[in-house]
TrEMBL record, chain A:
Ferredoxins are iron-sulfur proteins that transfer electrons in a wide variety of metabolic reactions. It comes from Streptomyces mangrovisoli. This is Ferredoxin. Pfam families: Fer4_13. Keywords: 3Fe-4S, Electron transport, Iron, Iron-sulfur, Metal-binding, Transport.
């Protein structure tokens, strides 16, 4: 599974971090960081993260 | 007998319902019916990026999951009636669609002011067409804008209009402060100050009695006698539930569709309601059914309701599940700052404490019931928002509030998300009720 976040859209709401803390996090500067190719076992929570993004900036490929 | 699930409403709640039906194990046919011509799209940008002319439709459209590729979309189609005993819905052209399960996701529409005067130049913001129409009108050079209703949408539109170069932007509201219902006085005062510092004017504690003008609005007559010159008027005075099509089926449609703790309507195992039209008890709080117009609610309700309905349709029971108990959250972007909420601040308006910061900088406010933190709201930049997020885990862990008479009388939790309208305001017009 591949995760792509459109960083031009991202406005640091952080809802993805709550939904999928294994994949999404904030760095020290408060900007979003994420695992680009997470384990497929995390699919449910990554899908949830994509659902709850207010900007709908998260895309899941494969 | 039909084996189709009909989803009534093709906005975010309808899409999420279809996706969650698949996730819950419903493999049968699904038909989603919506009256707008568009596939489901994200509404929060309507009062901001779309209104500012910066976001084309493609950037708003949701990307449906692969699991709903075989779902039938009937767009530009209105449902006018339903017979829940016979299990069918009726479309505007008379066609009847039978169903095995029905998801009510017909949402809300804006309330309109009913006072004398011209209609042209008056806008609401609910659909893409609304926002595009308002954008065109706001682009008139030197426009004087009057926003009636200082809730979420009103405050966001005021900020956007000013950013577009409007000559004057005035927010009118019968309450003494903007957004005071969902925010409480302390935070609403801080919000008012920030808007005023950036150039938005306010006419508070007053309603609207009439609009002036011939073919087109030229002024707004206030109940205190003043007349505000206006080239463009935005009405953001709350919303009404789209439930008329369900009349005559014995459902409680007092304010949206009343559901039980698993989002079933009228005690029917084959009818669920989702999104901001659903009036549901939240087991996390006092169990009083409320509609909640937050952006997070369509997804939360769809997830729970899809399991409820699929368990019934697949004959797998579904009893004994935990009742629905979402943690509400909302945000609002205005000017260069954000409001971010977690929990149910509206239930703790009598005990409001500053948790961090002050009215001049980033501000974090806590709302309490019986000394228990029930909600937080941040006002400011990213660090304020992060500060609020740190309380989220605590709010999730909190024990459920017991039902209490005092809470039953608390203001509706439907503090409204972002673009999905404000709770009903006191009557704004001197002449006749709003629609």
């Amino acid at each position: 599974m591949k995760v792509v976040v459109d960083m031009n859209k991202c406005q640091d709401h952080g809802q993805c971090v709550f939904a999928s803390p294994d994949v999404f996090s904030f760095d020290d500067a408060g900007r979003l960081a994420y695992v680009a190719e997470p384990d497929d076992a995390l699919r449910d929570e990554v899908e949830e993260a994509a659902d709850v993004c207010p900007l709908q900036a998260i895309r899941i490929e494969g | 007998m039909s084996a189709t699930v009909v989803v009534a409403g093709a906005s975010m709640a309808g899409l999420r319902a279809a996706e969650q039906l698949r996730a819950a194990g419903w493999d049968g046919p699904v038909t989603v019916i919506g009256d707008e011509p568009h596939m489901p799209y994200n509404r929060p940008p309507l009062s901001k990026e779309v209104l500012a002319g910066k976001a084309p439709f493609e950037s708003l459209a949701f990307r449906p999951r692969a699991s709903v590729r075989d779902v039938e979309w009937r767009l530009g189609t209105r449902i006018v009636a339903a017979d829940l005993d016979a299990r069918h819905v009726e479309l505007a052209d008379g066609e009847r669609l039978p169903y095995a399960g029905l998801v009510v996701a017909t949402g809300m529409r804006p309330r309109r002011l009913r006072c004398p005067g011209p209609l042209t130049g008056r806008h609401t913001v609910r659909t893409l067409a609304d926002a595009q129409g308002l954008h065109a009108d706001l682009s008139r050079p030197g426009a004087r804008v009057v926003v009636v209703g200082g809730g979420f949408i009103g405050c966001e539109v005021a900020a956007t209009a000013l950013g577009l170069g409007a000559a004057e932007v005035t927010v009118v509201d019968p309450m003494p402060l903007p957004m005071v219902g969902p925010l409480g006085e302390l935070l609403a005062r801080a919000l008012l100050r920030r808007h005023e510092e950036r150039g938005v004017r306010f006419a508070l504690g007053t309603g609207v009695t009439a609009f002036e003008g011939g073919d087109r609005v030229t002024g707004v007559v206030l109940s205190d006698g003043r007349v505000l010159p206006a080239d463009v008027v935005v009405e953001s005075v709350g919303s009404l539930a789209n439930t008329e099509w369900l009349d005559g089926n014995g459902l409680d449609l007092t304010d949206g569709v009343l559901t039980d703790e698993h989002l079933r309507a009228g005690g029917r195992p084959d009818v669920v309601a989702v999104g901001d039209v659903a009036r549901f008890p939240n087991a996390r709080y006092d169990g009083v059914p409320r509609r909640v117009e937050h952006w997070s609610i369509p997804t939360d309700t769809a997830k729970h309701a899809a399991v409820t309905l699929t368990a019934h349709l697949n004959g797998t029971g579904g009893t004994g599940r935990e009742p629905f108990a979402p943690l509400p959250t909302f945000w609002s972007d205005q000017h260069d700052f954000r409001l971010q909420s977690f929990g149910a601040p509206a239930l703790g308006l009598d005990d409001v404490r500053v948790l961090h910061g002050d009215e001049d900088g980033d501000l974090l406010v806590g709302y309490h019931t019986d000394g228990l933190l029930v909600g937080v709201i941040a006002l400011g930049g990213q660090s304020a928002v992060m500060g609020a997020a740190r309380y989220r885990a605590q709010l999730l862990k909190q024990p459920a509030l017991s039902a209490a008479p005092a809470l039953s009388a608390a203001p509706a939790l439907s503090a409204a998300p972002d673009v999905a309208a404000v709770p009903a305001l006191p009557v704004l017009t001197g002449q006749g009720a709003p629609e």
